[in-house]
Backbone:
């Protein structure tokens, strides 16, 4: 083929192409190759599904807790005085009644010794009064018996003289003398009996008085002993001396606190939680208490308090075992609470829109939008209602997925 023939063929081809372009319909759009465009409706979208099950949606929470003690006392002294010696240092354990602090007791010991002397004096006075009464009574009783014997003899003599006088055996003077001796014997007996009675009356007056003085001295002695014992400040219960509030040489006024005692066996942790969580923290519920890198077991004692202005409910718990945490320290209370119960769905399988919350299921190869009600959400899971357990839902939901779209479940996820 020569050059003229080739040029003619080329010109004919160009003319044909020009006519073809000119003959295109005026309204026909120019086709483009857009890779971002959604696939044609005739193309099935590949999806994965997961089976949902009924369960509880729980969450772990951690809040600050304060370590306290049921028995945490600032022990006061019952007497005033200078602190002579601190017997137990801070942090040491003591038993109930153990001496912790000693005040100066010089004046109290002197008062006690004086009370002992006064009691002994009163006891001696009572003893002497009893001895005197006893001795006097013995001699007066002997005098009465002697007077009675003399009277009996005088009576016999007077009677004999009367008989002799009647017979003319004695004179009138002898009779008068016998009668005089009888009268004297009668008077002596009366006097002896009166002396004995007066001695008994004296004993009745003096001995009770001496007994009262002894009793008064005994009361004074007990008070002196009590005053001395008050100079020793003792632990009212077993525990740990958390703080000594005075130093040796200082003056402690009566009624002032001198040391702080904590019963470590009654340790408690206190914290506050939302009202919904308090309902789950029933009595004896176990949870974790963290302090100093160690974990301890706490058990709820009371969560029935009323929420304050911060809408938090106070919770009190005890610690299991022989735990010795510092009172006033801050710990971490970690507990698990249930947010809701229902059908658990992955958060990536839930679509939230203006039309409400929904999941997508697959029915006859097409995606079907199913409305749901959200109960609670946490940790990438959602507890929902209005969805049957065992349903397989699309997870995750493709961004372009629409209700009724044709889908193909990937291998291993076929419903």
Residues:
């Amino acid at each position: 083929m020569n050059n003229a023939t080739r040029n003619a063929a080329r010109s004919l081809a160009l003319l044909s192409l020009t006519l073809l372009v000119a003959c295109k319909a005026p309204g026909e759009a120019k086709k483009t190759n857009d890779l971002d465009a959604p696939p044609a409706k005739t193309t099935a979208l590949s999806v994965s599904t997961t089976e949902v099950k009924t369960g509880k949606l729980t969450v772990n929470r951690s809040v600050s807790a304060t370590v306290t003690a049921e028995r945490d006392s600032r022990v006061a002294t019952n007497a005033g005085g200078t602190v002579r010696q601190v017997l137990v240092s801070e942090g040491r354990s003591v038993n109930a009644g153990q001496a912790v602090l000693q005040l100066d007791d010089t004046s109290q010991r002197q008062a006690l010794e004086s009370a002992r002397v006064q009691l002994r004096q009163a006891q001696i006075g009572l003893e002497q009064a009893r001895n005197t009464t006893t001795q006097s009574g013995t001699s007066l009783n002997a005098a009465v018996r002697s007077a009675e014997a003399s009277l009996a003899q005088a009576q016999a003599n007077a009677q004999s003289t009367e008989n002799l006088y009647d017979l003319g055996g004695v004179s009138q003077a002898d009779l008068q003398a016998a009668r005089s001796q009888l009268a004297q014997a009668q008077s002596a007996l009366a006097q002896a009996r009166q002396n004995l009675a007066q001695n008994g009356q004296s004993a009745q007056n003096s001995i009770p008085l001496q007994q009262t003085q002894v009793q008064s001295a005994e009361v004074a002695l007990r008070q002196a002993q009590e005053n001395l014992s008050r100079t020793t400040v003792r632990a009212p219960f077993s525990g740990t001396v958390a703080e000594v509030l005075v130093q040796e040489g200082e003056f402690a006024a009566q009624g002032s606190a001198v040391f702080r005692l904590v019963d470590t066996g009654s340790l408690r942790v206190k914290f506050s939680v939302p009202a919904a969580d308090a309902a789950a923290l029933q009595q004896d519920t176990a949870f974790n208490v963290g302090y100093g890198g160690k974990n301890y077991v706490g058990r709820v004692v009371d969560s029935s308090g009323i929420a304050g202005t911060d809408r938090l409910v106070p919770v009190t718990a005890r610690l299991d075992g022989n735990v010795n945490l510092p009172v006033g320290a801050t710990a971490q209370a970690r507990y698990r609470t249930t947010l809701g119960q229902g059908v658990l769905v992955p958060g990536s399988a839930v679509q939230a829109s203006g039309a409400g919350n929904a999941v997508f299921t697959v029915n006859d190869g097409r995606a079907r939008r199913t409305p749901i009600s959200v109960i609670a959400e946490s940790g990438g899971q959602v507890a929902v209602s209005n969805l049957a357990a065992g349903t397989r839902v699309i997870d995750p939901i493709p961004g372009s997925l629409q209700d009724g779209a044709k889908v193909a479940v990937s291998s291993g996820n076929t419903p």
